[in-house]
Amino acid sequence: MTILIIEDEPQAAERLETLIQAVRAGSAVEAKLDSVRRSVAWLKANPAPDVIFMDIQLADGLSFEIFDQVTVTSPVIFTTAYNEYALKAFKVNSIDYLLKPVDNDELSAAFKKFDSLVKQAVPHNKVMESIEYAMQMLTKKYKERFILKVGEHLKSVEVKDILFFYSLEKATFANTTDGRKHILDFTLDQLEGLLNPDRFFRINRKYIVAADSIQDMINYTNSRLKVVMKTSDDTDVVVARERVHAFKEWLDR
Asked: DSSP labels for 81-146?
């Protein structure tokens, strides 16, 4: 098996090559490249490898730019430090991802998926459609401000000044750092797709919170967490049990 590694961190590239040799003995790493420019030049000048391991953020831009400049016929396994929300983009046919730091088990699973896809002979156009979707997800622009109602007036508020969003009696509100609450013309489901998941997390059906809003966390019944939030008078804000693990990981980035 021939392999191309596109990774701009030399230590990460060396570590990945070592793991590949351990998991898939006899594999030949044809090259380790650190930029869009070098990758495009190599792919134009050499036969397509069996598989490409590709970091998303390279020395001179996003690796997705490679696909705009050269036809990539090899299956691609992305390596990335992007969060779980963004990685939903890769849960499509013919694309896999490895979250850094890569470990043996994840790498083995990625090779198994590669083997199964080779047997299925997935058409190249389907591969490219999946990559395009992933690119759109990972380069998505999130809202930076909202127009909020203040009495008869409208006010532009930056997202960084919003501590949390919540629903109450079929309405949606935003609480700001000055302790005020403002009604919004969005549902919480709509807001999930508009807000940067690095900053906001949906803890339950009623609340989307910013990390900066959390004042305290208390262990609660049934393996849940109760959170105390700045400027909030709600004393019963609880992280849903099925979201506790992801919530802790989100906070511990």
From this structure: ---HHHHGGG-STTEEEEESSP-HHHHHHHHHHHHHHHHHT--HHHHHHHHHHHHHHHTPPPP-EE
